[in-house]
Design brief:
This protein is mainly alpha-helical. The protein is 59% helix and 4% strand.
Length: 187
């Protein structure tokens, strides 16, 4: 994975991720923190790589794409088919259509690029939930105003995602989102 991580980081730099502003610094810094958070939770290498690369095609919440979808094969070449499939699922997700029912095993992942809806297999559903949590928790850690504004909604979202989250991911959700400064502690 070291080579893939180094190659992915080099491509991110080449495409300007170091110069794109993002809460907590730059897009590249955010992506590396998401990868590190997933690693701390014990995520397998493919999910860690997806965490590093999750914004290559833009996302529903951060539309700046580094690579057009027509160049997906380039990312596959660097990080592999499994990690790129996670990146695509995350990037393509229409959050408004997907999030309300995502925890149900037969619910669909709605693709904002194609308009299609498909039921992801359990592993991809787990990966999507973990990546979503790592991404949002990084934002909440870096930006207290973001955490105060979105923390309760994110905690409710990840409570619904709980069946798909690892124990370390869920514990981190609680630590970051439930124990917000200025909020009453909920035991």
């Amino acid at each position: 994975m070291q080579t893939s991580t180094a190659q992915a980081t080099a491509l991110l730099r080449e495409l300007g991720a170091e110069a794109i502003p993002h809460p907590g610094g730059t897009l590249l810094a955010h992506l590396d923190r998401v990868r590190a958070r997933l690693a701390a939770w014990g995520a397998r290498p493919a999910l860690q790589l997806a965490g590093l690369c999750h914004a290559f095609y833009g996302t529903d919440g951060f539309p700046a794409a580094l690579l057009p979808l027509a160049r997906r094969a380039e990312l596959v070449e660097i990080i592999g088919t499994e990690a790129e499939a996670i990146v695509y699922a995350y990037a393509s997700c229409d959050r408004k259509a997907t999030y309300p029912h995502f925890a149900a095993p037969a619910s669909a992942l709605h693709d904002r690029f194609t308009g299609d809806a498909r039921t992801p297999p359990p592993q991809l559903r787990r990966d999507f939930a973990e990546l979503s949590a790592a991404n949002e928790l990084d934002l909440a850690r870096r930006d207290p105003a973001f955490r105060d504004r979105h923390g309760p909604g994110l905690l409710a979202l990840f409570a619904r995602f709980r069946p798909w989250l690892s124990d370390p991911a869920w514990d981190d959700c609680l630590a970051v989102l439930r124990n917000r400064p200025g909020a009453a502690r909920q035991e």
